[in-house]
């Protein structure tokens, strides 16, 4: 029966490579995510729905790149494998081995937004609302890259579309392609929802911060759904996978942003 399932054999590189050097799909996913994000931010500005000037979009994107990379990388160690940071600190710099945490990346992005908002004299909650609407694009590409890399695999499964991941624990068994489930939920579904809320309502101007709260809650929910199919990549906390456990804090933060009173935004 095992032979009836597809064995994952996709190269993590796009085109030729030399050892660990080459164009990786994982790195390409980040580039695509930032490109799509910048394009959407430019559309918001042209449509008169953003306080972010067109000539500052590149500056914001640079800050976000730093926030995502540093926050995601540090979060991967602190939130999931803290012992590795002490036992092998140089592994932090071996980015070709993978290791990025979405929760850590979001914390890094938040810090970058606060810093940029102060320097550009734009309310941080407004920038958070804008970034919340484009973040799912990066999550979509990132999860697809996780599947291509054959990492973050799902739990053992018997569904017809199960996949055998050679890097998974032995004995090798078919597993859910949970990376694709998360790409559909955290990426495509959440992107559609956030774009619908942004373009079809006045929530960005009437209630700054609310859209960010909705994103945090929606992301936490779809992440927890995805976690039911995903093999935990670290020890459980209170019987919950770490992805689910950390998502509970996102729901709490989202609720605070939704119920808090915020001064309406004026976009000139």
> Main beta sheet, described?
2 strands, parallel
Structural class: mainly alpha
User: What is the 3D shape?
Assistant: globular
Strand content: 5-15%
Number of domains: 1
Number of strands: 4
List the helices and strands and how they pair.
Blueprint: E1 6-7, E2 13-18, E3 21-24, H1 25-46, H2 57-80, H3 82-87, H4 102-120, H5 124-149, E4 163-164, H6 178-200, H7 203-206, H8 210-227, H9 242-259
Helix pairs in contact: 1-2, 1-5, 2-4, 4-5, 5-6, 5-8, 6-8, 8-9
Properties at a glance:
268 residues; mainly alpha; two-stranded parallel sheet; two-stranded antiparallel sheet; 9 helices; 5% strand; globular
Summed up, what is this model?
The protein has 268 residues and is mainly alpha-helical. It has one domain (22-259). It has helices at 25-46, 57-80, 82-87, 102-120, 124-149, 178-200, 203-206, 210-227, 242-259, and strands at 6-7, 13-18, 21-24, 163-164.
Describe this structure in words.
This protein has helices at residues 25-46, 57-80, 82-87, 102-120, 124-149, 178-200, 203-206, 210-227, 242-259, and strands at 6-7, 13-18, 21-24, 163-164. The protein is 60% helix and 5% strand. It has one domain (22-259). With 268 residues, the chain is mainly α. It is globular, with a radius of gyration of 19 Å. The protein is built from nine helices and four strands; from the N terminus they run βββαααααβαααα. Helix 1 (25-46) packs antiparallel against helix 5 (124-149) and helix 5 (124-149) runs parallel beside helix 8. It has a two-stranded parallel ribbon. It has a two-stranded antiparallel sheet with strand order 2-3. Strand 2 and strand 3 form a beta hairpin.
